[in-house]
Amino acid sequence: MEAILLVGGRGTRLRPLTISTPKPLLPTAGVPFLAHQLARASAVGITRIVFATSYRAEMFEAAFGNEAYGVELCYVVERRPLGTGGAIRNAAQALNSDPGDPVLILNGDILSGHSIPDQVELHRKADAAVTLHLTEVDDPSRFGCVPTDGTGRVTAFLEKTNHPVTNRINAGSYVFRRDVIDTIPQGEVVSVERETFPGLIAAGKTIMGFVDPGYWLDVGTPAAFVRGSCDLVLGELTSPALPGEPGPFLALEDAHVSPRAVVTGGTIVGAGAVVEAGSTVSGSVIFDEAVVAKGAWIRNSVLGRGAKVASGAMLDGAILGDGAIVGPGNELGDGLRLWPGIELPPTAVRMSSDV
Ligand code: GDD
Ligand code: MG
């Protein structure tokens, strides 16, 4: 079976991390995020994947080449972003599948433990045009809200509505019959969520909802990105791409973690990164070459490549761009982001109290 991976978004909610790297390539539990999706797709029998790329398109081929985890990969580039539906139609030109074959479509920012074979099985049994994976979330207004009838058939698709009618949402994994993809207009900007799905429902086509209560996360926000990486390291979601055994933390080769540092909560420590004695790091993502100095305290944060946190500094829910430096005594709270290369000098308050 073939798949299309949607990876053309700009990932603006994850800036500054996505300034240099597209969201699907951000280091997540020690490997590019997509490695987890590719390894999983391979494990369920996907043999060929077409990447639908746009933003920083060239970086995907450079990262994965023509094959990964035994799956053949090819790349289709949109000269201008075509939206999710336009991207699917455009990428379909590279598929080998026959008109009646099922094709898997995956959003490129989803960690999911749902059963893809069971989703495909439902699709075949129902002879559906499309079968959507649905999951339940506390706040459906941020997603595509998808009500179904008693038989599991989708009755409406309400993208990011302030008036959700159910907490079941579109989980970003679709099985399309190949000839249904061919009905999406070619070369135009189309939203699969706002145009294609509502259009198919209005035309009376069979769209099925496959509900699976397994692990599910969209890593599109900083907090969710950190959560996803930690869950993979902790083994909350099993990934064949995890570069080590699950545990309280994982340090890549050439990382140096002092035995007198306290590192917990699924923290990943990247290659060449240093965590010095007396520091505390919990539930965080430390990219390659970053440095946590003696006595620093870090929670639920991201340190970009080569970023530095000095002695006595505190980070809680903060994001440091590549090469950013937090001088001694600074305290960065929830949601605070430092752009790449920015240096925060030592804080005068702390320095005077230190004296
Ligand atoms: N090639 C290409 N071109 N890909 C795109 C484009 C485009 O123009 N626009 C978005 N994508 C890709 C993104 O890279 C991402 O992998 C996927 O499409 C979904 O885009 P997001 O920007 O992450 O959308 P969202 O999270 O707000 O909402 C979508 O996902 C939710 C589940 O996480 C929708 O599908 C919702 O209905 C769904 O609930
Ligand atoms: Mg998303």
Protein model, in words:
This protein is of the alpha/beta class. The protein has two domains: 2-218, Spore Coat Polysaccharide Biosynthesis Protein SpsA, Chain A; 248-344, UDP N-Acetylglucosamine Acyltransferase, domain 1 (3 Solenoid). The protein has nine helices and 31 strands. It has helices at 17-20, 33-43, 58-64, 83-91, 116-126, 178-181, 192-202, 222-234, 348-354; strands spanning 2-6, 27-28, 31-32, 48-53, 67-68, 71-77, 102-107, 110-112, 130-136, 144-145, 158-159, 168-177, 207-211, 216-218, 249-251, 256-257, 262-264, 267-269, 274-275, 280-282, 285-286, 291-292, 297-299, 302-303, 308-309, 314-316, 319-320, 325-326, 331-332, 337-338, 343-344. It has an eight-stranded mixed sheet. Strands 15-18-21-24-27-30 form a six-stranded parallel sheet, covered by helices on one side. Helix 4 crosses helix 7 (192-202). The longest helix is centred in the middle third of the chain and has 13 residues, at 222-234. It starts with a strand and ends with a helix. The relative contact order is 0.12. Bound molecules: guanosine-5'-diphosphate-alpha-D-mannose (GDD) and magnesium ion (MG). The site of magnesium ion has 4 residues, from loops.
Shape: elongated
* Residue fraction in strands: 25-35%
Cα gyration radius (Å): 22 Å
Count of domains: 2
Major β-sheet profile: 8 strands, mixed
CATH level-3 fold name of the largest domain: Spore Coat Polysaccharide Biosynthesis Protein SpsA, Chain A
Q: Name the CATH superfamily assignment of the largest domain.
A: Spore Coat Polysaccharide Biosynthesis Protein SpsA, Chain A
Topology, number of strands:
31
Q: What's the CATH first level of the largest domain?
A: Alpha Beta
Tell me roughly what share of residues is in helical segments. Answer: 10-25%
Structural class determined from secondary elements: alpha/beta
Molecules bound to protein: guanosine-5'-diphosphate-alpha-D-mannose, magnesium ion
- Give the overall average pLDDT: 95
Low-pLDDT regions: none
Distance between the termini: 67 Å
Q: Number of helical runs?
A: 9
CATH architecture of the largest domain: Alpha-Beta Complex
How do the strands of the widest beta sheet line up side by side?
5-6-4-1-7-12-9-13
